[in-house]
């Protein structure tokens, strides 16, 4: 067991939120990060990476590259009590402060090389296919359809979406613009239809042409397919523990204005797993991490009067969905935009340089900056 001595902060989940928190706290506390992967990744680059795997060289980053003064336990957390986290490798990790940052369920390989290889396999599958089926018309499905059709206008791309409009997280105007853009590029979009995800397989794509039948009885033939439906929140491991009572109907952890779970004095939650009433976005998960980082530094210095703790205020998120390399639809707090302008709002490098700077990562594994 890893024992603690008053200033141990255990962070469960090394995604956008947990990784940033670990990085900013490592010189102020005895930090332990528990994550089943040996690396941190920038998820919003993953769609483009299916067409151009070279981009992930800079976005799949070993935890060891930015955590120079923290311990990393490569395992899943499988249980917790009021002082210890239990991991899938049988190791227990004691804590003084606990931060839950497990985001959404997602199975990823443990090592960086295996992860990079996945993107190369996707690229090969797409390159070999003359027809591609995408299931799910949320931001990921729309971005993937747009990337594929811009890269290879001759491919037959079909997007099947269960709702009455694409991009339900955005305004009807933004949905209509995305639909118009995709249809103008000859992407077939089938709305209000579903395809049984189990019959379609849960993987990222399969080789060889296959017929898929939609809920409306239409047949879609495709050489490869991608399932881009939403993933549930990764709170299953907390059910049956003392934190189970703070999980809401959607699986999210109920936090207070200081991002503490319930009103527990030493347990926080950040990122997509929280019930903060706002769109689940990476840049907001980073803001959660910074608020909790400041609060933990206060609490580590002293018992910290309650009124000094920083508050997190939910924001109306700005959401930008890219449509290939130049266009995008953007939902800003007071308007929606479509075309080249939002394509500028979200820079061409998809905030990779900015995120790397935040994580204090200079240069890259192959020498570029
Ligand atoms: C394709 C795509 C495009 C996106 N585009 C944007 C965008 O343009 N802008 C934007 O701001 N946001 C975007 N988002 C949303 C953004 O990525 C998420 O809001 C953000 O990743 C949430 O961060 P998180 O740290 O809460 O969770 P995650 O990033 O999901 O990280 C969760 C971490 O927890 C780990 N974990 C899970 N279960 C356990 C366990 N039991 N024990 C230990 N570790 C565990 C996982 O391995 C993972 O490392 C996009 C998301 C996707 C998938």
Give the topology.
Layout: E1 8-12, H1 16-25, E2 30-35, E3 39-41, H2 46-49, E4 60-62, H3 63-66, E5 71-74, E6 77-80, E7 84-87, E8 92-94, E9 97-100, H4 112-128, E10 131-135, H5 139-151, E11 156-160, H6 172-184, E12 188-190, H7 197-200, E13 210-213, E14 219-222, E15 224-227, E16 267-269, H8 282-301, E17 319-323, E18 327-332, E19 335-339, H9 340-345, H10 352-358
Parallel strand pairs: 1-2, 1-9, 2-5, 9-16, 10-11, 10-15, 11-12
Antiparallel strand pairs: 3-4, 6-7, 7-8, 13-14, 17-18, 18-19
The chain binds flavin-adenine dinucleotide (FAD).
Residues 12-18, 34-37, 43-44, 46-47, 76-77, 101-104, 139-140, 234, 237, 271-273, 280-283, 285 line the site of flavin-adenine dinucleotide.
Question: Keyphrases for this structure?
Answer:
369 residues; alpha/beta; FAD/NAD(P)-binding domain; 5-stranded parallel beta sheet; 4-stranded parallel beta sheet; binds flavin-adenine dinucleotide
């Amino acid at each position: 067991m890893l024992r603690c001595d008053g200033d141990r902060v255990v962070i469960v989940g090394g995604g956008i939120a947990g990784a940033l928190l670990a990085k900013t706290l490592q010189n102020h506390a005895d930090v332990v990060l528990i994550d089943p992967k040996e690396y941190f990744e920038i998820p919003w680059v993953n769609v483009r990476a299916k067409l151009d795997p070279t981009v992930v060289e800079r976005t799949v980053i070993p935890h060891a590259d930015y955590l120079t003064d923290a311990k990393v336990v490569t395992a899943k957390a499988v249980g917790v009590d009021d002082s210890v986290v239990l991991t899938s490798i049988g190791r227990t990790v004691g804590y003084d402060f606990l931060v839950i940052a497990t985001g959404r369920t997602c199975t990823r390989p443990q090592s960086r090389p295996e992860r990079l290889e996945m993107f190369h396999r996707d690229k090969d599958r797409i390159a070999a296919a003359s027809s591609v089926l995408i299931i799910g018309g949320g931001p990921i499905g729309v971005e993937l359809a747009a990337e594929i059709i811009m890269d290879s206008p001759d491919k037959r791309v079909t997007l099947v979406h269960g709702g009455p409009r694409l991009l339900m997280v955005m305004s009807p105007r933004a949905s209509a613009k995305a639909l118009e853009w995709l249809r103008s590029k000859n992407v077939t979009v089938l709305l209000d239809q579903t395809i049984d995800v189990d019959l379609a397989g849960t993987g990222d794509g399969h080789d060889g042409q296959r017929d898929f039948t939609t809920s409306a009885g239409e047949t879609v033939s495709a050489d490869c397919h991608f399932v881009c439906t939403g993933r549930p929140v990764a709170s299953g491991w907390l059910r049956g523990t003392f934190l189970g009572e703070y999980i809401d109907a959607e699986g999210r952890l109920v936090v207070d204005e200081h991002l503490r779970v319930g009103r527990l004095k030493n347990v926080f939650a950040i990122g997509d797993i929280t019930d903060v009433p706002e769109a689940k976005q990476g840049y907001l998960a980073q803001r959660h991490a910074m608020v909790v980082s400041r609060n933990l530094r206060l609490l580590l210095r002293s018992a910290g009067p309650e009124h000094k703790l920083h508050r997190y205020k939910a924001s109306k998120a700005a959401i930008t969905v890219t449509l290939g390399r130049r266009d995008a639809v953007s939902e800003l707090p007071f308007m929606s935009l479509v075309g080249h302008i939002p394509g500028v709002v979200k820079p061409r490098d998809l905030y990779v340089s900015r995120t790397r700077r935040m994580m204090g990562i200079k240069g890259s594994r192959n020498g570029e900056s």
